[in-house]
TrEMBL record:
Superkingdom of the source species: Bacteria
SMART domains, per the entry: Lactamase_B
Protein's UniProt name: Hydroxyacylglutathione hydrolase
Residue intervals of the Metallo-beta-lactamase domain: 13-192
Statement: the UniProt record of this protein carries the keyword Ribosomal protein: no
Annotated source species: Sporosarcina luteola
Hydrolase listed as a keyword: yes
Keywords (A to Z) from UniProt: Hydrolase, Metal-binding, Zinc
A single MF term (Gene Ontology): hydrolase activity
Cofactor dependence: Zn(2+)
Database matches in Gene3D superfamilies: Ribonuclease Z/Hydroxyacylglutathione hydrolase-like
Length: 211
């Protein structure tokens, strides 16, 4: 059984996910802030983290990347289209918000592309879901009927497209072809807010009506 733990972190309450099976290691997805809390949670769980996966490289999803990576000596994965974003505040957006710290991490260790990926006991699909950002991806755990989709789709909403590289038509196509094509009962875990399902969004998401 795949266990998904959700931690809303930082000033924008970005969802960080720690996922694991009943035994073995864990994966950390989008450590956006509060690195000490993430580290403490993993150590309390007595799990060995295997990797950090990023749905995309906006600042609120990557703020604690280096702290967690360096503490556990684990690799960071991001889509190749955002390979330069981790250390560039102008690309990751942190330079656009006065009062928030600039986010500057080291480079990613590995680059994601669409297809199957295996890390330890985790065998999942990477789907390229651009629109919110050019390198946005979703992680699909078919056997568990779980999808972690970043800021592509929210409960009764969709990701913003007014940031660099964003495009509304591209986003809607990603949602329709890559997320709503999943079984209606999949649990969809977004970058902010509560989980949902494809079935719920088909019926109740006003941004998708008529698409």
């Amino acid at each position: 059984m795949l266990n998904v733990r959700t931690y809303p972190l930082g000033p924008i309450q970005t969802n960080c996910y720690i996922i694991h099976y009943n035994e073995g290691g864990c994966l950390v997805i989008d450590p956006g802030e509060e690195g000490n809390r993430i580290i403490a949670e993993i150590e309390k769980m007595k799990r060995k983290p295997l990797a950090i996966l990023l749905t995309h490289a906006h600042f609120d999803h990557i703020g604690a990347v280096d702290q967690v990576r360096n503490h556990f000596s684990i690799p960071v994965y991001v889509h190749k289209k955002e390979k330069d974003w981790l250390g560039n505040p102008d690309l990751n957006g942190s330079s656009k918000y006065p009062g928030l710290p600039l986010v500057q991490n080291g480079s990613a260790d590995k680059f994601l592309s669409e297809g199957q990926l295996t890390i330890g006991p985790f065998d999942f699909e990477v789907r390229h879901t651009p629109g919110h950002s050019p390198g946005s991806v979703s992680f699909i755990f078919t056997d568990a009927q779980v999808a972690i989709v970043g800021d592509t789709l929210f409960r009764q909403s969709i990701g913003r497209t007014d940031l660099p590289g964003g495009n509304t038509n591209t986003l809607l196509n990603s949602i329709h072809n890559k997320i709503l094509s999943l079984d209606d009962e999949f649990i969809v875990y977004p970058g902010h807010g509560p989980s949902t399902t494809p079935g719920e969004e088909k019926d109740h998401n006003p941004f998708l009506n008529g698409f």
